[in-house]
Write a structure and sequence with these properties.
The protein has about 500 residues and is α+β, with helices and mostly antiparallel strands. The chain folds into four domains: about 1-30 and about 205-265, Beta-clip-like (Beta Complex); about 35-190, no CATH class; about 285-355, no CATH class; about 360-510, Tetratricopeptide repeat domain (Serine Threonine Protein Phosphatase 5, Tetratricopeptide repeat, Alpha Horseshoe), CATH 1.25.40. It has helices spanning about 85-105, 115-125, 130-135, 140-160, 175-190, 255-265, 280-290, 300-315, 355-380, 385-405, 415-430, 430-450, 455-470, 475-490, 495-510, and strands at about 1-5, 10-15, 25-30, 30-35, 45-50, 55, 75, 80-85, 190-195, 200-205, 215, 220-225, 230-235, 245, 290-295, 330-335, 345, 350-355. Helix 8 (about 300-315) packs across helix 12 (about 430-450), helix 9 runs antiparallel to helix 10 (about 385-405) and helix 13 (about 455-470) packs antiparallel against helix 14. The longest helix is centred in the C-terminal third of the chain and has 26 residues, at about 355-380. It holds the Pfam family zf-MYND. GO terms for molecular function: methyltransferase activity; zinc ion binding.
């Protein structure tokens, strides 16, 4: 079905040896080592500039079963790792007891151990050898060495403080540090982000061959799906002999610069896929994420729709012949280079917008992000709240997002994330009419960002269909549900929990 080949520019890669049909599961694999994203103090440190002190974001995911939980039970010894129940705490002890004293040590009182540091520590304690899976590091640049030196030093000191013999075969401290840094690179290059059923990151896992040899492409022809920690790699389209099999290591809804930075900083390569090269579809994707979009004139509106069509065609791997001459000017606002003019001008229709308006839009986006985060925290922490006040806040936030889309494209990453969050909150409040409205807006955005091949598209079509049926919109609801079924059986597979939920939903409601 596939084979491992070596090329000078990519190293080892996976290539199809026979034709593989769309929706076929080519890999099933349990992680050799996995760490949840989770625990108190394990998430990235957040610095509160107003209070001049460090705060920490807490993501409640069970260390043992990787399930999200509202109330955590922390390890009574180290107070770092969290569990959903006493039974998970007991089951995890055989894995956690080696690292428990290390996290309890004073070394981490002033330095937050990231998930990567934790995975490196765990690999030493369990004698897990990354080199058996993916070779050695030969191109450790000075810049990468310097960037990793401090966290590697913290890890080395933490390990030596409790496990004095762990580096006994190293003669010099420099060799110890280099070994730990190499582990950091191995973790960064070869671990996969584990995604939960709600398509949110919940951990990191290291999977055995051939998984480390699947190269990245933002326009990948395979998809990674997780059931708890178990990985499934499925084909998104028909693949022919000689074609490379690729997966995406990151969220392709990010703008090009962000994606390239993640590939360089975390995975140590430069992505050269079609969505990262400078071409018309990638320019459209980038503008939708970064620029102020003009929709003042009918001509600009039509042009934006055409840009969407070009990008969606690229995401869905359809041939789209567009005339490059049409793209000499885009419907985006650019600030005047004349210092005496505080205006932004559309490159297509030449409509002018005052600089104060643009500054107001930027501030309103920041303000809306904070309001959404506050509501999200309110629900996550299960505080008592007044439904009417929350509903008013939701409608206010939705109106602000709608206003922002008169200057930003609706698929802008920050707007998408805000819509997803208020959609979840409106469902929690059982405000299904509002939720259905938000879900329809969100669907349009994710189609432009991901295309219809993405599992996130199938997930939200299913959700929107259920909301429509709940509101007695039977025709629209069933149409969405059957669209979701086609996507989900291809991306998630017929044995996935979400597909079984869909089948059960149709059967129970006699559709």
């Amino acid at each position: 079905m596939y084979k491992i080949e070596y090329t000078e520019d990519k190293g080892k890669c996976i290539v199809a040896s026979t034709q593989i049909r769309s929706g076929y599961c080519i890999v099933e694999s349990h992680p050799e080592i996995a760490i949840p994203l989770c625990v108190k103090f394990m998430a990235p440190r957040i610095v509160d500039s107003t209070l001049k002190k460090n705060n920490y974001k807490t993501i409640n995911i069970c260390f043992y079963c990787f399930e999200k939980v509202n109330k955590c039970i922390y390890c009574p010894n180290c107070k770092y790792v969290a569990y959903c129940s006493d039974s998970c705490l007991e089951r995890a002890w055989k894995f956690h007891r080696e690292e428990c004293d290390i996290y309890k040590s004073n070394i981490f009182d002033r330095y937050c151990p990231t998930i990567t540091m934790r995975l490196v520590i765990h690999s030493y304690l369990t004698h897990f050898n990354f080199y058996d899976y993916s070779g050695t590091i030969t191109d450790l640049t000075k810049e990468k060495y310097e960037n990793l030196k401090y966290p590697a030093y913290i890890v080395a000191v933490a390990l030596m403080s409790k496990k004095k013999k762990i580096f006994s075969n190293f003669d010099e401290n420099k060799n110890i540090l280099k070994n730990v840094i190499e582990k950091f690179i191995k973790v960064s290059k070869n671990t996969l982000q584990i995604i939960d059923n709600e398509l949110e990151p919940c951990g990191l896992g290291f999977y055995k061959k051939p998984v480390p040899y699947f190269n990245h492409s933002c326009l990948s022809n395979c998809i990674t799906i997780f059931k708890n920690q178990k990985l499934y790699i499925r084909t998104l389209m028909d693949i022919y002999p000689g074609e490379e099999l690729t997966i995406s290591y990151l969220d392709i809804a990010f703008d090009r610069n962000t994606r390239l930075a993640i590939c360089t900083d975390q995975y140590f390569f430069t992505c050269t896929c079609k969505l990262c090269k400078v071409n018309i579809p990638s320019e459209c994707h980038n503008m939708f994420n970064n620029d102020f979009i003009c929709t003042r004139s009918e001509n600009c509106k039509k042009f934006v729709n055409y840009m969407e069509m070009v990008l969606i065609s690229e995401l869905e791997r359809k041939l789209n012949y567009h005339n490059k001459l049409h793209f000499k000017a885009f419907p985006i606002l650019k600030k005047s280079t004349d210092k005496n003019e505080n205006i932004w001008k559309c490159m297509l229709c030449k409509h002018e917008t005052n600089d104060s308006v643009i500054k107001g839009v930027i501030e309103k986006e920041k303000e809306t992000v904070k309001e959404v985060e506050y509501l999200e925290t309110l629900f996550a922490e299960k505080y008592s709240y007044d439904n009417k006040i929350i509903l008013q806040s939701l409608n206010k936030i939705k109106s602000k997002i709608d206003y922002l889309t008169t200057f930003y494209h609706h698929s802008r990453y920050s707007l998408q994330k805000m819509r997803a969050k208020i959609l979840y909150i409106s469902i929690q409040l059982q405000e299904f009419k509002l939720a259905y409205n938000i879900a329809n807006q969100y669907l349009k955005s994710i189609e432009v960002s991901y295309g219809k091949y993405s599992p996130i598209y199938g997930y939200y079509i299913f959700l929107t269909g259920k909301l429509a049926l709940f509101l007695d919109l039977k025709s629209a609801g069933l149409n969405l549900i059957h669209k979701a079924k086609k996507n989900i059986i291809k991306t998630y597979g017929p044995e996935s929990p979400i597909y079984k939920d869909l089948e059960k939903f149709l059967y129970t409601n006699k559709y």
